[in-house]
Design brief:
Blueprint (H helix, E strand, L loop, with lengths): L4 H17 L28 E7 L6 E8 L6 E7 L5 H16 L3 E6 L3 E6 L7 E7 L5 E6 L1
């Protein structure tokens, strides 16, 4: 399936808008898709200095993948990443990698591994952090988080 340039441009504009506006918008309760437990603001996950996000399957619809990162010292950071219908698991991984790099900044190293995996690592001095999958509305995209 061919991904049209206008869809790629639209997803980049949406991603930029979310990344720019996210710090300006107060956190609000959002509905959680079926099958994913709604974590509370005080429910800090067990930390690690490195996490692996594994993506499987091609997106069968447009959607948004939402993560919450819990830095050792600080408030949780929510990152919402727009996904376009037809994106492969490798393209989804690179889209997530790019969004996390921008949103998390210099205290973290974010890279892809094997094409379909994203590694999020704390740089020296950042400390262990938690990572949660809050939601995924892109149909047929399977996501697994692993502490490493």
């Amino acid at each position: 399936m061919k991904i049209h340039p206008y869809r790629i441009a639209l997803s980049l504009v949406l991603a930029a808008t979310i990344l720019v506006a996210a710090p300006l918008v107060r956190a609000q309760a959002q509905p959680t898709p079926a099958g994913i437990a709604a974590p509370s603001e005080t429910e800090r996950p067990r930390g690690s200095n490195k996490w692996r996000i594994v993506f499987d399957e091609r997106a069968k619809s447009d959607g948004v993948i939402s993560f919450r990162i819990w830095p050792r010292d600080g408030a949780p950071i929510q990152v919402d990443i727009p996904i376009v219908d037809g994106q492969s698991e490798n393209r989804i991984a690179s889209t997530v990698r790019d969004a996390l790099k921008v949103r998390l900044g210099k205290g973290f190293h974010v890279e892809t591994d094997d094409g379909e995996d994203v590694l999020v690592k704390a740089k020296h001095g950042t400390g262990d952090f938690g990572l949660q999958l809050l939601g995924n509305t892109a149909r047929d995209v399977d996501i697994k988080l692993r502490r490493e």
